[in-house]
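agent> Task received from the user: take the single chain below, predict its 3D structure, and emit structure tokens. No templates, no multimer pairing.
agent> Plan: (1) validate residues, (2) run structure prediction, (3) serialize to tokens, (4) report one or two observations.
agent> Step 1 OK, no nonstandard residues flagged.
tool_call: predict_structure(input=
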Amino acid sequence: MSDTMVTSEAKAVPPVVSSVQDIPLERIHESSSNPRRVFDEAQLRELASNIQLHGVLQAILVRPSPNCARGTYELVAGARRFRASKLAGKNTIPATVRNLTDAEAQELRLIENLQRSNIHELDEGIGYRSLIDLRPDFYTVETIAAQVAKSPSYVKGRISLTELILAAQTAFYNGRLTVAHALEIARLQPRDQEKALLECFPGHRSTGSILKDRKAEALTVRQLREWIEREIHLDLRNAPFDTEDPNLLPATGACSTCPKRTGNNPLLFPEIKNKSLCMDPTCHQTKVQAFVQLRVGPLMKKDKARPDFGEPFLAGSH
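)
tool_result: status=success, residues=318
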């Protein structure tokens, strides 16, 4: 991760209002909005050992707690150093105190985490998405990509990981899925993600059993891709309905403008050459049914409108 990521304006980061000072660990609390969810315990223990020998070499960043008792602080940056100091049995930690608004603290917290080389890919995606949600007027896929020295498709892919269903997220965090598996699954609709996850682990009938099986090994990414191409991809060029028609299924609009069409989302599907693939088979099937109803409905009405002459005329019946 590049360390060149900065906020858009100098005033976004208020100046330091106090020099580095030692603050009791018990007076500092972590923020619930920290995008980093995973901390490698082995790495934390290693850092704790270094802190026991050399102390904390880089001060953490805190701000006065906005809603807590006077003299307490909220951690803005430095969660690993903070946790490792506790493991090392330290009572205090060097910290820089700044007066920050909620938005400023969150922006700095996100940027600090995204600059770490060992951040989990899903946490990275959460960070990118949070920045966009925080300041959509400045942060876009393109501006973030420029700041972290990555391609827009890389950033878009990481953001897509936040769309993973909970079971897939857990399997990813637990190491049962690689980032390549996760990226393939994340591009699917939730109902298809569960199918794909089960497909990755033959012999398991539920996502729960996958998560419980510590020895579960996923199929290769190539096998997963082949399943997705076979079971999920639908070529809109073969659709029986008009893909330009926004009124066939008003809730979803026209296929030609739908983000689930590969050609309309090139950053998410950069390697797929066919730009007319539909990635939502359920929606596709619903449109087919709506199209059939439009064709069959008038015919059924016409049949009902025909006069019913009853049983065949029998001689002498009159």
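agent> Step 4: summary for the user.
Confidence is low (pLDDT under 50) at residues 6-16, 313-318.
agent> Done.
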